[in-house]
Amino acid sequence: GEDVEQSLFLSVREGDSSVINCTYTDSSSTYLYWYKQEPGAGLQLLTYIFSNMDMKQDQRLTVLLNKKDKHLSLRIADTQTGDSAIYFCAESRETGTASKLTFGTGTRLQVTL
Amino acid sequence: DTEVTQTPKHLVMGMTNKKSLKCEQHMGHRAMYWYKQKAKKPPELMFVYSYEKLSINESVPSRFSPECPNSSLLNLHLHALQPEDSALYLCASSQTLDGRLKAQYFGPGTRLTVL
Questions:
Q1: B80 inside 8 A of chain A by CB
Q2: Each residue's pLDDT tens digit, B54-81
């Protein structure tokens, strides 16, 4: 199967770091993505990591990939109230000229003052 | 510019109506996608167009009819929908070139309510 699992909910205080975890099953995925979705909005591409990388840093975001355990995480440093949203990881398989994403179940991040 | 636009933002329709959702991108992407998203769930892929040709149909009922009239536009024609089709419909686009990152960029969605 192609189940991508995430914990449902995470609550952090403003200024702390958030770590959102994702477990995927398709070892043939070429890229893994993180998307953010605010209420009533579309999905915003946050970052991605190529499957042969271990880590990628992009400003406040750090992505870690453990291919052996098929585990992906997103760390948000200095979390702000504007980071409150649902975060989806997604594994990608290329289908010739397009890509097919399998999304995780989504993690709701709540940032408290 | 990584913008995908969708119209309308909201749509309410009866089960006998015919309506269309529209999606547009000007990023030069030649792959475009339709997704359906129910509340508190991840998006589910419906259709994929590549170079204006339908390449993937995820066993979607025929009351949903996609159309890609040119490389920038993607439509979803709706007819005889059911109340359970009420959802957020998302459009996305991506690169198609070999060796290039095929990240999908999403529009803001159309919130559809079927009465």
A1: no
A2: 999 999 999 999 999 999 999 999 999 9
